[in-house]
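Thread amino acids onto this structure.
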């Protein structure tokens, strides 16, 4: 009993944080033999297999709606459908071996909106109605007939279903208000497990994840292979030299170690192209060494591209016949990578607001990274208004941003100038700068825009080394194009187009 209380205390304590602390885990595994073969999916998620499915306990408290989305987005599964007693018993047993002993976890059943019926499934697909015998076993606070329940509790809507354990390992179903935050159970097909791959986990390089499979297939099958293994993955996209070398190294250090493997590039009309990303490769390597063609240039056309580490001391892109059978490298974007910007298209302008803060110089460089973006020359009233909307009324509120203006001290007298067009800055609603001495002015030469009283703009020069948010500008079409390439929206090109 003492021991139980100890566990409880640990769990209560840790429940105030999203993640469960290590001691609880140690306590439990030290005192119970674990019968299920759990694998740690992430720091706060562990998985086990029952029949053809992998079930994942995720120790992060979310509303039912968010848990539902996280299952899809993060684990490529769905909230667990526990529609048979064997599953229910097994999951309850597994639960008893985790740090979540006493928790309620969201599963994939809910009241159909507007109806007084419980269904397995989700808003987009309800699969099976729960029968009354089952619903009668639900556990929730009820008041006996002679006590009038408090209004709030009487009106409580319990429309989402939680799963827990009663006594030792008896499954219990607990209807709850969908808005309360609970951990959850995701479910996905077992075959998702990475059979025949050279590394246990995905290999992360920048914002992409890679996986190498040692099965040998021709390029066409390799192309289908990746998204059959994982709907989010494609035959590998290798966007730069560094990535090619890192993945080359992993070909070597994996088990088994491999000499080469297919990546997603194939000859199309007049260039090698990463098919899914629609990125055409140059015929010759650039100064960075990319694409890493042998001897810096393509020799063969009409082939498919292998990433090959054994022909030289650097890893190369080697065009070869698409019919050869070779291992496969898949890749996908790391969805866990937090996007630190937000795009807004307004009319002919494409704005990208960055939440990560940078000095003026670094902000400018970030905007210009692709050669086409710019810090904003707010030389039109329209820009100022758009910026106010973006800063104050859209996704996130931002107080200060950098603009592309500088106090140009090389001119006599010094003058505020737009850095790209070199135009003098004329009509901005400047902060009264009468109190400024020339010395103050000279130390504050980068143009800042502030939002005051919700939607009033003020502009003034400030220290360039301050780190603050910024907005970059592209012509709308260019930003849209950029978004498309970044997202790498899967296009399923007509077969004859892809495999010609
Ligand atoms: C809803 O759940 C089903 C499983 O019952 C799943 O296959 C489907 O992908 C889910 N819908 C969405 C939009 O995720
Ligand atoms: C109701 O559902 C439970 C569990 O899903 C099942 O065991 C039971 O046989 C069902 N009862 C009826 C009458 O269909
Ligand atoms: C793994 O490779 C073996 C042969 O090496 C093959 O028979 C098997 O189907 C592969 N498994 C998967 C899941 O691809
Ligand atoms: C690349 O090489 C192919 C075949 O030699 C040629 O048709 C194509 O025009 C070249 N592309 C460029 C941009 O030079
Ligand atoms: C690349 O250049 C080396 C010498 O610099 C030469 O021996 C080799 O044959 C060349 N490889 C190809 C594929 O042309
Ligand atoms: C690879 O070898 C060549 C000559 O064989 C050498 O010039 C080059 O520096 C080497 N590159 C690396 C990355 O070791
Ligand atoms: C306004 O800025 C844009 C680019 O930022 C520039 O092309 C244009 O010439 C400027 N217009 C005026 C009137 O200064
Ligand atoms: C932000 O602005 C864009 C463009 O007007 C709009 O489509 C989007 O819905 C807005 N987002 C929010 C959260 O207001
Ligand atoms: C701010 O004051 C300084 C010094 O009085 C003056 O030279 C400068 O033009 C003023 N700046 C603006 C933007 O009005």
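Threaded sequence (500 positions):
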């Amino acid at each position: 009993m003492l021991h139980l209380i100890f566990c409880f205390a640990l769990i209560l304590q840790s429940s105030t944080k999203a993640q469960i602390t290590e001691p609880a885990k140690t306590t439990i595994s030290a005192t119970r033999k674990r019968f299920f073969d759990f694998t740690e999916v992430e720091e706060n998620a562990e998985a086990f297999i029952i029949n053809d499915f992998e079930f994942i306990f995720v120790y992060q408290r979310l509303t039912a709606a968010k848990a539902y989305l996280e299952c899809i987005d993060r684990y490529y599964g769905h909230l667990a459908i526990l529609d048979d007693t064997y599953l229910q018993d097994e999951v309850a047993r597994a639960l008893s071996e985790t740090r979540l002993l006493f928790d309620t976890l969201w599963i994939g059943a809910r009241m159909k909106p507007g109806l007084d019926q419980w269904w397995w499934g989700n808003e987009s697909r309800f699969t099976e109605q729960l029968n009354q015998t089952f619903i009668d076993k639900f556990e929730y606070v009820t008041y006996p007939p002679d006590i009038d329940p408090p209004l709030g509790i009487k009106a409580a809507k319990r429309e989402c279903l939680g799963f827990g354990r009663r006594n030792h390992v008896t499954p219990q179903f607990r209807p709850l208000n969908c808005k309360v935050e609970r951990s959850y159970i995701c479910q996905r097909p077992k075959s998702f497990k990475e059979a025949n791959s050279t590394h246990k986990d995905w290999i992360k390089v920048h914002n992409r994840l890679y996986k190498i499979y040692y099965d040998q297939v021709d390029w066409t099958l390799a192309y289908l292979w990746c998204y059959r293994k994982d709907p989010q993955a494609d035959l590998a996209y290798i966007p730069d030299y560094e990535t090619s070398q890192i993945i080359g190294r992993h070909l070597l250090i994996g088990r088994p170690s491999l000499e080469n493997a297919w990546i997603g590039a194939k000859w199309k009309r007049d260039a090698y192209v990463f098919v899914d990303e629609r990125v055409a490769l140059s015929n010759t390597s650039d100064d960075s060494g990319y694409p890493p063609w042998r001897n810096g240039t393509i020799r063969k056309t009409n082939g498919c591209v292998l990433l090959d580490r054994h022909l030289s001391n650097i890893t190369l892109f080697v065009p070869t016949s698409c019919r050869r059978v070779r291992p496969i490298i898949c890749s996908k974007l790391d969805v866990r990578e937090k996007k630190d910007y937000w795009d807004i298209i307004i009319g002919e302008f494409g704005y990208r607001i960055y939440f990560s803060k940078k000095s003026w110089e670094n902000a400018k460089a970030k905007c210009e990274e692709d050669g086409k973006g710019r810090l904003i020359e707010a030389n039109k009233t329209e820009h100022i208004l758009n910026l106010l909307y973006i800063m104050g009324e859209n996704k996130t509120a931002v107080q200060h941003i950098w603009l592309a203006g500088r106090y140009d001290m090389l001119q006599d007298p010094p003058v505020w100038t737009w850095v790209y067009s070199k135009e003098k800055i004329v009509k901005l609603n400047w902060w009264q700068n009468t109190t400024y001495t020339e010395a103050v002015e000279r130390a504050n030469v980068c143009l800042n825009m502030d939002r005051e009283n919700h939607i009033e703009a003020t502009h003034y020069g400030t220290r360039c080394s301050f780190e603050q948010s910024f907005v970059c500008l592209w012509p709308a079409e260019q930003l849209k194009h950029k978004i498309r390439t970044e997202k790498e929206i899967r296009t399923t090109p007509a077969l004859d187009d892809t495999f010609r």
